[in-house]
Structure formats: C-alpha cells, structure tokens
Amino acid sequence: MENLISEIRRDARETRHYTGRDHLKDSVLDAMRRVDRSRFVAPGTELYAWENRPLPIGYGQTISQPFIVALMTDLLDLESGHRVLELGTGSGYQAAVLSELAAEVFTIEIVPELAESAASLLEALGYDNVSVRAGDGWHGWPEAAPFDRIIVTAVGEEIPPALIEQLAVGGRMVMPIGPRHGGQNLTVIDRTESGIERTQVLPVQFVPITRSDD
Ligand code: SAH
What we know:
The protein is α/β, with parallel strands linked by helices. It has a single domain, classed as Rossmann fold (3-Layer(aba) Sandwich), CATH 3.40.50.150. The protein has helices at 2-14, 16-19, 26-34, 66-75, 93-101, 112-124, 161-165; strands at 55-58, 61-63, 83-87, 104-109, 130-134, 147-152, 167-177, 184-192, 195-204. The strands form two sheets. Strands 5-4-3-6-7-8-9 form a seven-stranded mixed beta sheet. A two-stranded antiparallel sheet has the order 1-2. Strand 4 (104-109), helix 6 (112-124) and strand 5 (130-134) form a beta-alpha-beta unit. The protein is globular. The structure holds S-adenosyl-L-homocysteine (SAH). Residues 61-64, 87-88, 90-91, 93-94, 108-111, 114, 136-138, 153-154, 207, 209-211 line the site of S-adenosyl-L-homocysteine (SAH).
C-alpha cells in the first residue's frame, strides 16, 4: 500500500510540467489509503491490486490506474459538503474514493452487471453516501442536479451537454476528451457565470463513453 502511495507521489512529480501540481493533496492520498482496491478488482487479479496500473474488470472495461484516480480526485478540489456526479462507475473504486471526501456521490454505469456489482459492493463496504444507477450517463442525473463536481471516467470527443447543464455555476468537471484511440487529454472544465473554461492537463488513455444506441 505505501509502495503504491510512493509511486503515485512519483508520478505526480514526473507529470508536474503537464499538471502544474508537483504533489497531490494529503487528503487525497489519505482517501486512497482508506479504500481497499483489492475489493474492487476482478477475482483472480487481487495480487495486482496494489500495483499502479489499470486492470480488466470484465465487459471490456477497466479499473483505472491508481495515479489517474488520485490525480482526477485531486483536480476536483473536493470539499466535504460537495455533491458529486460520476459517469462510468465501473468497479465502484473511484466512487469509493470520492465518497471519502465529499458529502454525496451519484454514479452512473451503462453496463447493468457492473452497476449491480458495484452497488452491492459499495453497500457491503458501508459507503452509504453513494447512489449507483444503471443507465446512460450521457444524460446525467437530472433529478439530483445541480452538482458541485462532475467526473467522467470514460473518454468522449465532446463534453456531454447535459453534464454542463447539471454542473453548478462555480462548479468543476474533470473528463478525458479526445478520440477513442490516441490523442486524449485529461481536461478540467470550470463552469463560470459566462460559460465554461477548459484546461488540458495530461495525455491519457481511457475506454470510450458508449451510448445506449451504440
Ligand atoms: N471509474 C471506474 C472505471 C471506469 S472505466 C472505476 O473506478 O472502476 C469506464 C466505465 O464507464 C466503464 O465501466 C463503462 O462501462 C462506463 N461507461 C461507458 N459509457 C458510459 C455511459 N454512457 N454511461 C455510463 N457509463 C458508461
């Protein structure tokens, strides 16, 4: 575990010219320490849970690399009162990390089997401030909007318009933007009074946002 935290710290230092931050907040590293990643990886891959790399979770999807989970969480600048939306529950790991730092987490997963297993795992582990929904996150979660923070853990060529609408003014979204293969950039999107401001943070590689009509 502390090895993984050291690797995350090292990655943060090595990417500082891109990200503009040479270290991640202690609160984020502490949240990473508190969540047992071995519970979220696929059976048979527990041995690799503490390595700083993505792992397959079935259905062609992956649990993201721990450094990327930590960086995205850091970029969100979470406060304890925040309500957060996540598109792409996957294993539920990122949602668990968010739930350690925010008031409420709403997370949507398009693969029903993944939504179901993440929901029951999060419940079993006592993450009672996380709500999981099976469905197409492209439309967001209008009944629970507005959100102080939104995180998208799958790549899209554009920002889902509903998510911009559901982001509070003064709120922030973190999302990989780009094509399916290559050329993706982790992007911070700040919603201001007058519109949105985008800042590209780091070249990344994510699985694509799929749509229910794909
Ligand atoms: N955050 C996850 C990793 C996500 S991988 C974790 O911590 O494990 C990306 C996930 O986004 C996949 O599970 C994929 O099925 C999901 N996804 C893709 N398109 C989606 C959509 N339109 N709505 C909701 N989820 C989607």
